[in-house]
Amino acid sequence: MLYQPQLFVYMWFLPVTFFILLPFAFMLSTMFITFATRAAAIRPKQENRNASEGELIIQESDPIDKRLHPRFRIAGISADASNGIDLCTGLACNISRSGIGLIDIPEKFAQNPGNLSVVISGRQKIFRMVIQPQWHQAIGQRKRLGGKVVSPPVGWPEFIQHYESIFKGLGKGLSTTGLSGFSPVDSP
After folding, report:
1. How far is the C-alpha of 177 from the C-alpha of 132, rounded, in Å?
2. What angle do CA 91, 95, 100 make, to 5 degrees?
């Protein structure tokens, strides 16, 4: 038979378990899964983790492409974007002197036609810039977004020139094999 103090302990056990411990465990597991997914998307998927920068970029070229500057597909750079109302985190998939491509953007976020404030971080560099969206493409419940850099930050041209010099040093025979599993959808 239960005594009064033990009954009191059992009565507290159920609410604490269902209203505090289970939601806390669910929150921790969700955060872990999100962190692991994001880390896997940012990290280049290669056997040796000491990949050179030359292996992480390719020049995208299209004979009918009318871009002023060549763009480079790149991995391992995160992008935090804000439209003045919402904030989201995505990945930069290609860069050029005058534009940038972002992937993993929420669908509702890309519907706002205004300029976006974007913070690009990766390769020990942080750039804050304003981009004007030029196009977006639905990929499931997420979007891929391409935009023109309205206000290039200090150091952005040098950052791009660094990758251009790496590409020129590697020669024109570079393929996507250096990205090893990182191949976002080609932009329209």
Report:
1. 31
2. 70
According to the model, what pLDDT value does residue 41 have?
A: 61
Q: How many CB atoms lie within 10 A of CB 90?
A: 23
Domain 56-175, CATH homologous superfamily name and number? predicted glycosyltransferase like domains (2.40.10.220)
Which tops the pLDDT comparison, 155 or 70? 155
| Residue at token pair 């880390």 | 39
CA 108, chain centre distance (Å): 16
For residue 133, what is the enclosing H or E element? strand 125-139
The amino acid present at 19, given as its one-letter code, is F
Which residue has tokens 């300029």? 115
8 A C-beta contact, residue 65 and residue 111? no
Summarised one tens digit per residue, pLDDT across range 170-185 is: 654 443 333 333 333 3
What's the pLDDT at 181? Answer: 32
Instruction: Please indicate whether residue 69 or residue 15 has the higher confidence score (pLDDT).
Output: 15
Distances (CA, A) of 28 to 31, 36, 173: 5, 12, 46
The residues pairing with 137 across neighbouring beta strands, listed in sequence order, are: 144
